[in-house]
Amino acid sequence: MKRMRKKNGGFTLLEVLVALVILAVGLLGLALFQVTAISANKSGNYFAQATFIGQQRLENFRAQDFSTITTSDGINGTTPDTSTFNSLPGTQVDTYQGVTYYSVWYVNDVSSTLKEITLWVYWQDRLGLWHSVSFQMKRAA
Description:
The protein is an alpha+beta fold. The chain is built from 1 helix and 4 strands. The chain has a domain at about 50-140. The chain starts with 12 loop residues before the first helix and ends with a strand.
C-alpha cells in the first residue's frame, strides 16, 4: 500500500488566526499612538496661540507711552488666581478657534525711568484644566 504524502505548502487555519490577532494588536497600538499625537498637536497649537497673543501684548507695551503703562485692575504682582482673573475689569480677552485666552499683567516701577512688566496668558482646555504662558519685559522711558 502506498502512503499519501502531506503537502506542507500552505498555512493552517490556526496560524492564520494567530497572525491576524498579532496584526490587530499592532494596528490598535498604532491607532492609540495616532490619537496621542493629535492631542499633543492640539496642545502645541494652544501654546503657540497663547505665545502669539502674549507677543502682541508686549509689542503694544513697547508702542505705548511710558507713563500710561499700568497694572491690570485687580492684579497684585503674584500669579493671578484662575478663579478670579477672568472676571477682573482689566482682563484682555481673545478667542481663537473656540478657545478663550485671558491676558493680565503686572507693572513694577523699578525706577522713574524703568518698568518691569510681567504678563500672563491663560486658557482652559477641553478637560477644564487651566494652562498659562508668562512673559517678562523691561521698558525704559
